[in-house]
């Protein structure tokens, strides 16, 4: 046991578990997002639970983009990078989205053109397509290897993952009646279909006959994992936890639907419209 603990501490030191690497750009970005949230919350205060969810999402982003998870994914293991991507797309975005209220986002819709663009981008089919095309495209070897080689491209990759993941979660967690959630049956179908593209990409990676991402071949080896094994593990991480995650969400949606009944529109939000003007006072004359 002592030898095993010594090996674990040695590996942890290699990955940076004892000396955290902090990237100022992430601190500035997350700090700015947190400050914007607190500013918006003054006018349309979210509940304590919503605040907790939002800042938990920021914490997940921070832990994913700094410290050992960042170092493991960038410098050692492709499989570590897949864990990071799942945190950036399946854990942090739903926490962030469930932490805001419609009143916090509604003022942004008043800007010219924003409402129309938002209606288009939050359509269920568009959310599905944008996320899965982004996920698949960035795992093409040429693009993935370019992101590993150039830090600026890597930042763009992660920003695209997070932005399209927020859209991907919109039909399930929208806080705005103006941009409503899908109905419960549609949410279940959406979750079922969402697992398919990720599974295809994962199979492509896990079953490849050669190394798709050669940067990891020259990385220091950890835990005796060869580069090919690392690539296969990465594909399996995307395949199994990624796919099962959506089936878990689908199960939650089913139980919510069963509690509300079998009305096909249950779960969908009614479009928000301004209150109609008050009727005229009897006896008054209209001019």
Structure description:
The chain has 287 residues and is mostly helical. Helix content is 69%, strand content 0%. It is globular, with a radius of gyration of 23 Å. The relative contact order is 0.11. Helix 8 runs antiparallel to helix 10 and helix 8 packs parallel to helix 11.
Give a quick precis of the structure.
Helix content is about 70%, strand content about 0%. The chain has 12 helices and no strands. The protein has helices at about 1-15, 25-45, 50-65, 65-75, 80-95, 100-105, 115-120, 125-140, 140-150, 150-175, 185-205, 225-260.
Separation of termini? 91 Å
Strand count: 0
Pick out the low-confidence regions: 1-13, 262-276
**What do the pLDDT scores average to?**
85
What is the count of helical runs?
A: 12
Q: Which class of secondary structure composition applies to the elements?
A: mainly alpha
**Shape summary:** globular
Taking all Cα atoms into account, the compactness measure Rg is 23 Å
Strand and helix order? HHHHHHHHHHHH
Q: Percent of residues in helical segments?
A: 55-70%
Strand content: under 5%
**Major beta sheet summary:** none
Notable traits:
mainly alpha; disordered N terminus; 287 residues; 69% helix; globular
Per-chain topology:
Elements: H1 2-15, H2 24-43, H3 48-65, H4 67-75, H5 78-97, H6 102-105, H7 114-121, H8 124-138, H9 141-149, H10 151-173, H11 184-206, H12 227-260
Helix pairs in contact: 2-3, 3-5, 4-5, 5-10, 5-12, 8-10, 8-11, 9-10, 11-12
């Amino acid at each position: 046991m002592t030898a095993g603990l010594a090996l674990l501490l040695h590996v942890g030191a290699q990955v940076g578990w004892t000396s955290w690497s902090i990237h100022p750009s992430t601190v500035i970005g997350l700090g700015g997002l947190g400050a914007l949230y607190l500013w918006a919350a003054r006018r349309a205060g979210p509940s304590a639970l919503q605040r907790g969810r939002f800042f938990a999402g920021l914490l997940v982003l921070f832990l994913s983009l700094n410290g050992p998870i960042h170092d493991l994914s960038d410098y050692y293991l492709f499989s570590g990078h897949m864990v990071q991507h799942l945190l950036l797309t399946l854990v942090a975005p739903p926490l962030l989205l469930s932490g805001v209220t419609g009143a916090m986002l509604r003022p942004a819709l008043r800007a010219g053109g924003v409402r129309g663009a938002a209606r288009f981008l939050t359509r269920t089919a568009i959310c599905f397509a944008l996320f899965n095309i982004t996920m698949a495209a960035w795992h093409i070897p040429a693009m993935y290897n370019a992101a590993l080689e150039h830090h600026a491209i890597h930042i763009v990759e992660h920003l695209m993952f997070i932005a399209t993941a927020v859209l991907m979660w919109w039909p399930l967690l929208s806080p705005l009646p103006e941009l409503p959630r899908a109905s419960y049956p549609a949410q279940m179908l959406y979750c079922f279909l969402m697992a398919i593209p990720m599974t295809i990409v994962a199979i492509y990676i896990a079953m490849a006959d050669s190394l798709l991402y050669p940067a990891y071949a020259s990385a220091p080896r950890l835990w005796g994992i060869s580069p090919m094994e690392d690539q296969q593990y990465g594909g399996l991480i995307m395949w199994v936890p990624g796919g099962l995650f959506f089936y878990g969400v689908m199960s939650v949606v089913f139980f919510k639907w069963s509690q509300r009944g079998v009305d096909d529109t249950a779960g969908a939000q009614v479009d928000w419209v301004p209150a109609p003007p008050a009727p005229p006072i009897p006896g008054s004359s209209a001019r």
